């Protein structure tokens, strides 16, 4: 039984309003959730309910979403016996009644869903990751993909690609992977400062230097990996990109990268060249979400050699992912709980991927709180891949730190990509 449900408007890491949700079960177990929020969103994501009152927070307030939680959602959930998280999530889906959760807001439903998961885990004396692990899955500590350089919508520099990440695939343990990330970040910071370049940060803590071409960043990353005493390489410290290409596609279909306008084919060729020159193992949102034919070409051409992750194009939605798989688009999916709006649908999305041998990477959003839910989800899913921004800033490192705590408590859990 759910006996109490509270929602408060708080701030996320970008200084925008988001929801804090606390749920209490009969017996006293409670669960808390802080709701993440994207800057660069896919068009089919669950809709965030925002107040639209331009005199407060530029219209971004979430007091209506909070009122929906303490009003109609609590009214629906209280005083009934719930058998599972899936039942609660189904009730939220039905109460909302829209395809994109636009009535209650995906931010409201995901907050309640996450808080419910935490409360139920607590009531059963389980760690959240233990509670979330499906019985068909072996939990695992994921390879962290640290964002070291930001561009696109996440920074105000001239870089078109949004995220340049490093992945310590060859690290012997979670703790050593985090050490590699932090040491390489520090060397990159030092190198940029020594070159007189800006060392300010983007939304997720990645550095935002005044580079313009992706090649400049990739060269700086390899130099920093070397400089920190690690080996750049596909099975050592590899590089992953999230160009977030929907953001630099122009109305006429061309992609604007640095000072060049590229066709879809030319952009695919650029990725091919970059992957030949640098140890890039994964590219997320390499093309825009509506460039379906391009995605097919990209997958045909590079899908054997590279992980191609769908974020905007899949939006963690099991149905959209099924369609993408049928269309032979990408070979992996980014997983963000707030994109679909409940934990149960997130788990379903991951199960669809697993069944079709699509890899999964659990991900943060540009706007985060100190909630470390996604670290637990990454371990529980056994997916082997995780991204939570830079190895710096509280709302990012709390997730990596949680992974190190789990690793310390459970030395039996394997670290690494696994079978994917
Ligand atoms: P977002 O960025 O939260 O702005 O969507 C993360 C990503 O694109 O992967
Ligand atoms: Zn992305």
TrEMBL record:
Q: Which residues bind Mg(2+)?
A: 242, 284, 311
This entry's comment on the bound cofactor is:
Binds a second Mg(2+) ion via substrate during catalysis. Mg(2+) is required for catalysis and for stabilizing the dimer.
Per the database record, which ranges form the Enolase C-terminal TIM barrel domain? 138-411
Q: Which residues bind (2R)-2-phosphoglycerate?
A: 162, 336, 365, 387
Tell me, which GO biological process terms does this entry list? Answer: glycolytic process
Q: What is its EC number?
A: 4.2.1.11
Q: Which family does it belong to?
A: Belongs to the enolase family.
* Protein name, UniProt field: Enolase
What lineage, starting at the top, does this entry show?
Answer: Bacteria, Bacillati, Actinomycetota, Actinomycetes, Streptosporangiales
């Amino acid at each position: 039984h759910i006996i109490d449900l509270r929602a408060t408007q708080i701030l996320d890491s970008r200084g925008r309003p988001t929801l804090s949700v606390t749920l209490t079960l009969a017996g006293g177990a409670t669960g808390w959730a802080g709701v993440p929020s994207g800057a660069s969103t896919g068009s089919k994501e669950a809709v965030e309910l925002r107040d639209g009152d331009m005199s407060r927070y530029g219209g971004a307030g979430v007091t209506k979403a909070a009122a929906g939680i303490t009003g109609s959602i609590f009214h629906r959930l209280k005083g009934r016996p719930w058998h599972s998280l899936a039942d609660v999530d189904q009730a939220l889906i039905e109460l909302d009644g829209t395809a994109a959760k636009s009535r209650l807001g995906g931010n409201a439903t995901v907050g309640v869903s996450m808080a419910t998961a935490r409360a139920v885990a607590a009531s059963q004396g389980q760690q959240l990751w233990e509670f979330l692990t499906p019985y068909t899955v072996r939990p695992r500590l994921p390879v962290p993909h640290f964002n070291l350089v930001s561009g696109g919508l996440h920074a105000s520099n001239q870089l078109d690609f949004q995220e340049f990440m490093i992945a310590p695939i060859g690290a012997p343990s979670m703790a050593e992977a985090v050490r590699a990330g932090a040491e390489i970040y520090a060397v990159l910071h030092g190198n940029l400062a020594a070159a007189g370049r800006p060392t300010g940060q983007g939304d997720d803590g990645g550095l935002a230097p005044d580079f313009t071409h992706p090649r400049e960043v990739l060269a700086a990353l390899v130099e920093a990996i070397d400089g920190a005493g690690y080996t750049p390489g596909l099975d050592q410290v590899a590089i992953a990109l999230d160009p977030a290409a929907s953001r630099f596609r122009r109305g006429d279909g061309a992609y604007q990268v640095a000072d060049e306008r590229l066709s879809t084919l030319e952009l695919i060729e650029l990725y091919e060249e970059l992957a030949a020159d640098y140890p890039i193992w994964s590219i997320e949102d390499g093309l825009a979400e509506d460039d379906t034919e391009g995605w097919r070409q990209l997958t045909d051409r590079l899908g054997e050699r590279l992980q191609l992750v769908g974020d905007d194009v899949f939006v963690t939605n099991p149905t959209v992912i099924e369609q993408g798989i049928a269309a032979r688009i990408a070979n992996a999916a980014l997983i963000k709980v707030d994109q679909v709006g409940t934990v149960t649908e997130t788990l379903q999305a991951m199960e669809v991927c697993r069944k079709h041998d699509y890899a999964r990477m659990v991900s943060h959003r540009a706007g985060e709180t100190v909630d470390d839910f996604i670290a637990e989800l990454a371990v529980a899913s056994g997916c082997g891949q995780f991204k939570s921004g830079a190895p710096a800033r509280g709302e990012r490192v709390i997730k990596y730190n949680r992974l190190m705590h789990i690793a310390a408590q459970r030395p039996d859990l394997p670290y690494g990509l696994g079978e994917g």
